[in-house]
Amino acid sequence: MAGGRSRWTATLVAVVVVLGWLVVGGLAGPYSGKLGDVATNDNAAFLPADAEATRAQDLAAGFVERETTPALVVYERASGITPADQERIRAEAARFAHLPGVVGPLPPPIVSQDRQAVQVIVPIDAAEGEQIGAVVDQLRDIAGADRDGLTVDVAGPAGLLADLIEVFTAIDGPLLLVTLVVVLVILLIVYRSPVLWVFPLLAAGMSYSLASLVVYLLAKNDVVKLNGQAQGILTVLVFGAGTDYALLLIARYREELHRHERPWDAMRAAWKGAAPAIIASGATVIVSLLCLLLSSLNSNRALGPVSAVGIAATLLVMLTFLPALLMLGGRWAFWPRRPRLDHADPRTEHGIWGRIAGFVARRARTVWIVTAVVLAALALGVTQLGATTLGQSDLFTQRTDSVAGQEVIARHYPAGTGSPATIFTNQAAAEQVARVAQGVPGVSSVQPFSRQGPTGSPEVVDGRVQLQATLADPPDSNGAEHALRELRVAVHRVPGADAVIGGFTAINVDTADASTRDRNVIIPVVLLVIAVILALLLRALLAPVLLIATVVLSFLATLGLCALIFRYVLDFPGVDQSFPLFAFVFLVALGIDYNIFLMSRVREESVRRGTRAGVLTGLAVTGGVITSAGIVLAATFSALAVLPLVVLVELGVAVAAGVLLDTIVVRSLLVPALAYDIGPKVWWPGRLSRTNRNGDRAGTEADRAR
């Protein structure tokens, strides 16, 4: 940190760095609680500009004075709606119409054929944006609670959006608190010190404050579109990755304190030894996340820069603020297990990992073959994954008001009532398009749009007519999406129609298609980027290829394991289309971190001892810290389980399971066993691949003996 300068100069520099960061933290800290103010959760705004649903939205603007998002207030009485119920519903509908943000006049209440339910469609001005949630809250206040056997729920797109907004606005507090507690508990267990845990936790908090400030400014100035999902991931990513980097630096600092009398000399050596691996790791994650900019979905494009900002802020803090704190703490920071100046071999502090290294050396080929076969067997579970678009009733881990209302609608009406597919077609072909659409399986009815209501003449705008196709299945179900795809195929075939289909279901379909395209484009790019970074770091080509192969195998095994967990343990119906891409980016980018930590140390030791001895030493001295880092990262992502959203719970489970699998199996057994078995050639075509030191010759003789 301070080179060969005097003790007081080094101390002064450390004090200035710490005080400077504390000032930054004081200025940036309040913004961690303001991210929700600049977040948006309007899924339609995230569609690519060339999507059919986006073009339909543009056409829809010409048919109405104001674009609306419908809320569906649905009443149900199992014994049948009474006259008193109808009077209450009419009175409440009149109050709905006068609410700010509601576009009147409201359509008449719709009584179900079995006369057990009544539905009131309340169009809400789409310009309200996030305030749609506040309008829905007022609808729910007016409708009141269930009483005398009459139930009432607010569903539809606006009801769903309101429930999502409620979930995301609650992210800041509970998620941050759970993450802090998880990290604190693990640090206390790892360090068994009443002092040392303060340093990484304080540095992680500083990283989060800085990242929050930058993300807030970017979102406020419309550089990125922050949503609740990205906001939640930012929290756990910064604390998880930040604690990982801190553990690696602190472990190296402890080693160097055994070799150097003065803490600043020890920190300088530790920084030089650990910083390249930390920087390479952070760069890998940042570049991998920025690959999401290639996505056609704005939501994915936002997640990449937001998460990359978090990692960049974490790198900056962990390589400046944390070293200064540790240097000021000196050996006392490790109390009561203070490292002494004894020039001890670092392997002496890692007995259990030394024994694991010995086991790998004795059975290298058997170890990597068996672990590879086990991972491949787990990967077979991918066939059970069932990637799909989660329906509204499957989106939450708890039963929300919008879910309950949609279930009532599905029982008593064509489930797509209130959220029809909208067909825009040339006026001359409108009747033929309507007949064709009516004949599509899964379409209940087709009606032309008219400002005068169902009996009025169809509205014509720029030579186009709007048709509303009510689907038989709930608008967010697989059945509705299948029907919409069939509907598009059918109406697109009508000559001269130039038909365009939009609506709630169309948005889901186009989002799913864009997610599939993103997965096919981004995953190969991420792998290529990681390969280049590893080749530069390790100065080899074979080692990066092997490392990427092990991480991809670990990723597939994780997906297979998660498929079994989701289906048979958590009873989830499937995963969202975006899940494989998000899981890949986070698992591969973060999983490769641990291989970077391991192999950069292995290479450092291989230069001095030979490749096989370097593998064993690298495994022994990094095993404990990397495993601890993996546990911390897994635990922090597990904190996503406190949020009542299936998508985030699944991502948290996937990252946690994948990281544990990677640290315990891949990095501890598969990679070192493979590298040990291959020997110096693992560094091909680098110069290190042509050296054959004593450790390598001993390993070769042992191979012959086997």
Write a structural description.
Helices cover 62% and strands 7% of the residues. The protein is built from 23 helices and nine strands. The protein has helices at residues 7-28, 52-60, 83-97, 132-143, 156-169, 172-191, 198-220, 228-257, 263-290, 298-318, 321-329, 351-362, 364-379, 392-395, 401-412, 430-438, 478-492, 504-538, 542-568, 579-609, 611-638, 646-678, 694-705, and strands at residues 68-76, 110-111, 117-125, 151-155, 421-426, 443-448, 460-461, 464-471, 500-502. Helix 9 (263-290) packs antiparallel against helix 20 (579-609). It is found in: Cell membrane. Belongs to the resistance-nodulation-cell division (RND) (TC 2.A.6) family. MmpL subfamily. Residues 233-328, 548-676 form the SSD domain.
Bulk shape: elongated
- Tell me the Rg in angstroms: 30 Å
Please count the helical segments.
Answer: 23
> How much beta, percentage-wise?
5-15%
Secondary-structure-based class equals alpha+beta
Poorly predicted residue ranges? 698-706
Count all strands and give the number: 9
- What proportion of the residues is helical, as a percent range? 55-70%
Q: Please, what is the oligomeric state?
A: single chain
Q: Quote the average pLDDT.
A: 83
Question: Separation of termini?
Answer: 48 Å
Most strands sheet: 5 strands, antiparallel
Highlighted features:
single chain, 706 residues, four-stranded antiparallel β-sheet, 23 helices, 9 strands, disordered C terminus
